[in-house]
Design brief:
With 86 residues, the protein is mainly alpha-helical. It has five helices and two strands. The chain is elongated, with a radius of gyration of 14 Å.
């Protein structure tokens, strides 16, 4: 078991590309489908603790005005880079 402290946390989240690879198994489209089933008339989307902002990027593709927030500067920069590519 790995004991998580703020130093481990910072090291992990500062490697945004590795984080993205580690959580690549997630079905972002299905998760967004579920969220939109809950709020079918949504026009805005807010992703807190967004990491690489994958849900936010998907929601923009679906026409929602979207905002992603994360404490990690590395994640924010990585998310912005992914958004620009999409």
């Amino acid at each position: 078991m790995i004991k998580v402290n703020s130093n481990n946390h910072d090291q992990f989240y500062n490697q945004a590309e590795l984080y993205d690879i580690a959580f690549d198994f997630k079905d972002i489209k299905a998760e967004c489908n579920f969220l939109l089933e809950l709020a079918p008339n949504a026009k805005f989307f807010l992703e807190l603790g967004a990491g690489p902002a994958l849900h936010c990027i998907e929601m923009v593709k679906r026409g929602l005005t979207s905002t992603a927030l994360d404490l990690s500067n590395s994640m924010v920069e990585y998310g912005l880079s992914k958004a620009r590519k999409n």
